[in-house]
Amino acid sequence: MTDPKRDEERELVEGAEGVDEIDEIEEEPRNPFDNPYFLPVLLGGFALWCGWDGFVSDKFLERPGTLWFNRVMFLLLGAGAAWLGMKARGLRGPGTPSNEGP
Hints:
The protein is mainly α. It is built from 4 helices and no strands.
């Protein structure tokens, strides 16, 4: 679904001489949530928090359920942050076809 107002603006931009559509897009304010590193950093922060509570801090020693939750979530969130971080950097794993020529 497209925004009708946005389509009208695009038609005006395409019809005008000397105005580039790319310039119009670059002038729009960026949303901080559009940054590809936002989610990996957020998950990494939560992973560090769970890792601290699960392995370093002695705050949850008398509650083993909470202790194990923090330890498991440290591993899951850390793995998710690493995967999303590599995806944001554009790194490819082994066996992934690349777009580069021979």
